[in-house]
Write a structure and sequence with these properties.
This protein is 57% helix and 0% strand. It is built from 4 helices and no strands. The protein is an all-alpha fold. The longest helix is centred in the middle third of the chain and has 22 residues.
Length: 101
């Protein structure tokens, strides 16, 4: 389900919008996802989802500027500190939820 939502937010139909608007829409989705799944064993899922999101956004930026692949978009993301994209990795909270007494 999340990859479908990320795909819809980075679809070709949005190429005319500023990248900042796309990042803002993605951040709303990612914050909700992170808030709901932050407790528990979701580190691997968060890593995969974050990697997929960066990949999609890099390809979106490349397409927007007439480049092929993800190289150009990835350079833009890295040079601009991922344009404020919400990070999922490192947000898992381990607490006393499953503590043994």
């Amino acid at each position: 389900m999340p990859p479908l939502k990320i795909r819809s937010h980075t679809d070709r139909q949005w190429l005319l919008l500023p990248v900042e608007d796309i990042v803002e829409r993605l951040n709303l989705f990612l914050r909700g996802w992170r808030g709901y799944f932050a407790y528990g064993n979701s580190t691997t899922v968060f890593h995969d989802l974050e990697e997929f999101t960066v990949e999609r956004l890099a390809r979106f930026i490349s397409n927007k500027h007439g480049h092929h692949g993800r190289g150009y978009g990835l350079r833009v993301l890295i040079d601009h500190k991922y344009l404020g994209l919400v990070r999922l990795v490192g947000s898992v909270r381990h607490g006393p939820v499953h503590a043994v007494r």
